[in-house]
Every structure is written in structure tokens, then in C-alpha cells.
Amino acid sequence: MSIVKGGPQILSSVRNALRILKSFSTFEPTKRVGELAESLGLAKSTVSRLLSTLASEGFVIKDEKTNAYRLGLSVLTLGGIITNDLEIHKEAAPVLYKLVNDTGETAHLAILDGLDTIYIHKEECNHPVRILTHLGRRNPSYCTSSGKVLLAFSEPKIVDMVVDGGLVRHMHNTITDPEVLQHELETIQKQGYAVSTEELTEGTRSVAAPIRDYTGHVVSAITVVGPIQRMTNHKIDRIAKKVMEAGNEASERLGYDERYFKRLRS
């Protein structure tokens, strides 16, 4: 058992086990020992031992036919504990449900994790044609409506870090110019909501608004997403109004008092 030198004491075996777990994704739900060893720069024997340990605790499951591993139910159990413990999740869940009924589109809660946006809760709409989204999946913050809302109300250094990391083009509407992004974030601050149209995924449009806690800080974003054929231009104003109302209601549930903060600013 080795300890990584420098800074706090970190067990390399534990860190490598966590790196293995984090390597699974929606697009790569299964992994083999050789694939993990190559991508993580570890010996196959090390990966094999770590996977065996993780499997014994239910964090991964081995397919005996293919020798590939996938995440186990222990991961889901821990994720459920975190989700249920998040106050924002508990308070905003009924608001999301109402927003789906008001707009007819799928609604999400999103947070900023590092420089990426992550969906932490989702309420599906009833339309047979839906936009495929995944809880826990990381998305670039600068090309989603929820991410742009969170950036707009973040500290400037966070936006600088996003820009320094590169504004990679994903679709024809992706913002790749830092000045254009900054102007967009200023607009979002003024109007109170963000719109994203085919910036990350083809054929999709989303609208997001901020959720504040009792201190007035933006801690999450509430968003609806759907195909542009349904979320047409003439519907955006009405949808944006509904999303902002939902964001305000969720904020109030978290203890935010808009009148109090308006008095402080006056």
C-alpha cells in the first residue's frame, strides 16, 4: 500500500480504484481490464486486483462471458443517498413536476461541478418523442442553458477558467468566442434566463433560470429541454416566464426572500 507524496496523505490504491469507477460513462458503460489499464496508465495486474476488490463490495459486476465490467448497484445506492440528502433536490422536486405540466417538456435541476454542468434530478414529459438526457452526465457549461445560467451568476474567475480551458465547438451554434460568451452571460444576468439552441446537441432547445438559496447565491439551475420543432421561437417567451417562475418558487422553498435582498440593494 503506497502513499502519494506531497500534500495530504493519499492512498494510491484507493485513488486508483476511484479512477476506475470514474472511467465508466453513459457512452462506455462496460470496460475490460486491458482497456482500463491502457487508459489509466496502470498495470493490468493492478487493475485486475482493484476490480476484484470493487466487485466483492458490489461496486462493479463482471460479465463472465465477455470478461467486461460494469458498475454495480452499490454505486446506485450511494448516489441515492446523496440525491436524497440534497436539500435542493427535495425542495425543487415538486416544482419540477409542475413545470413539466406547465410546459409539456422535460425539466431538470442542474448544478455546476468544477467547470461542467451536471443534471441531478429530472422529470420526464409525456411526449413519445423526447430528448435523451442522463442524470450525472457532465456537459460543458458554456453551451447549455443551465450551464450559462450558472456561469452568469458565478464568480468571474470561474468564467475565466472555462474560457482558458477552451470553448470547443460541438455544434454550429456553439459559442467559441470569449467576448460573445461574456456578452451572453451579461444578457442572462439582466433578463433572468438563458436559452440554448443547438449549441451542444442537434435539434434541441432548452431554457433555464437560476435557483437561489437563503443567502441569495445561485446554487442550481432549473431548465426545460425539448426538440426545436416543439419549442419554437414564438413559444420561448412563455416558456421562459414559466421557467423563471419555477426558479423563483424553488428559491423561496430554500429560504430566499427576494424582497429582503431588494431592500439591501436599494
UniProtKB/TrEMBL annotation:
<dbReference type="InterPro" id="IPR014757">
    <property type="entry name" value="Tscrpt_reg_IclR_C"/>
</dbReference>
<comment type="function">
    <text>May be an activator protein for the gylABX operon.</text>
</comment>
<dbReference type="GO" id="GO:0045892">
    <property type="term" value="P:negative regulation of DNA-templated transcription"/>
</dbReference>
<dbReference type="InterPro" id="IPR005471">
    <property type="entry name" value="Tscrpt_reg_IclR_N"/>
</dbReference>
<dbReference type="InterPro" id="IPR036388">
    <property type="entry name" value="WH-like_DNA-bd_sf"/>
</dbReference>
<keyword id="KW-0804">Transcription</keyword>
<feature type="domain" description="HTH iclR-type">
    <location>
        <begin position="11"/>
        <end position="73"/>
    </location>
</feature>
<dbReference type="InterPro" id="IPR011991">
    <property type="entry name" value="ArsR-like_HTH"/>
</dbReference>
<feature type="domain" description="IclR-ED">
    <location>
        <begin position="74"/>
        <end position="256"/>
    </location>
</feature>
<dbReference type="GO" id="GO:0003700">
    <property type="term" value="F:DNA-binding transcription factor activity"/>
</dbReference>
<dbReference type="Pfam" id="PF01614">
    <property type="entry name" value="IclR_C"/>
</dbReference>
<dbReference type="InterPro" id="IPR050707">
    <property type="entry name" value="HTH_MetabolicPath_Reg"/>
</dbReference>
<dbReference type="GO" id="GO:0003677">
    <property type="term" value="F:DNA binding"/>
</dbReference>
<protein>
    <recommendedName>
        <fullName>Glycerol operon regulatory protein</fullName>
    </recommendedName>
</protein>
<dbReference type="InterPro" id="IPR029016">
    <property type="entry name" value="GAF-like_dom_sf"/>
</dbReference>
<keyword id="KW-0805">Transcription regulation</keyword>
<keyword id="KW-0238">DNA-binding</keyword>
<dbReference type="InterPro" id="IPR036390">
    <property type="entry name" value="WH_DNA-bd_sf"/>
</dbReference>
<dbReference type="Pfam" id="PF09339">
    <property type="entry name" value="HTH_IclR"/>
</dbReference>
